[in-house]
Design a protein that fits this description.
Number of strands: 10
Helix content: 40-55%
CATH class of the largest domain: Alpha Beta
Strand content: 15-25%
Number of domains: 2
Largest sheet: 10 strands, mixed
Structural class: alpha/beta
Radius of gyration: 20 Å
Shape: globular
Amino acid sequence: MAVRTTSTAVALVAIALSLPLPKAGHAQGADSYPSKPIRFIVPFGAGGPGDAIGRMIGQKLGEGLGQTVVVDNRSGASTIIGTELAVKSPADGHTLLLISTTHAVNPSLFRKLPYDPLKDLQPVTMLADTPFMLVVHPSLPARSVAELVKLARSRPGQLNYGSSGNGSSIHLASELFKMAAKIDIRHVPYKGSGPAFIDLIGGHIQVLFSSSVSSLPHVNSGKLRGLGLTSAKRVAALPDMATLAETWPGFEASSWFGMMVPAGTPEPIVERLLRESRTALRSPEVNRALTGQGAEPGGNTPAEFGAFYRAEIRKWGAVITNAGIRLDQ
């Protein structure tokens, strides 16, 4: 179900990037949209969950729009490189941007961004929302979230939790957990979730929040123990897995992905993209792929997604301030 990545697709990217771009204020009318290949900027490297969602949705969008959707991976600088490229592109619907939790975190992590996250981007819709799973090393005498909290309170500063790096969504979810549970566990940052998993399985750290997709194979094999999910309610794919919200009402943290376009994109084009995105998300193969991984397919309105995005910026800004986290460019 991948978007074309053959030599033809590569050629299309080159053609699309070489075409003269319309000036701001002269965006192409919605009646003839789309008139050329669409570039879907994914500010992550190839092979990750963001890339997989971008390619899966991109293929379906291309089918509905009648044009090739070319995924353009522009990773780096905590998604800032790809996002800056998108906001500088013409607002004509031929450039799409995949955004994630990281985009809502960046305004509080960095002193200055080369774009305004609230003014330079127009929301289209949420694509997928995936909760984290709280996993621990099986040697830890805790078989529930409540038991883990009790253990941590009895050993302040003695348990370690890992993350995929300072300021990552995993780091912030862990800090939110510390705030809610009023516990003291130490942060050990890694360069990616892979090394964190290795050390957790090896017993060098004891606690980790990670996506259910990454965690489940290790939980099913007995290498790790799953204690709970960070979703607001239990998910269909894991009905027996409790949520942290059952202990702390209102607790919610997730790794989500959505679609935005440059600000000023004509409303009819945004509505067309919303319709096609909803069709893609409701297709059996996409829906099955997302729900099978514990993700909740999106499809909300631009207004709803925009309100969610602003709430996420406020929520994670408070966590970042409380934890004293700062990443300077």
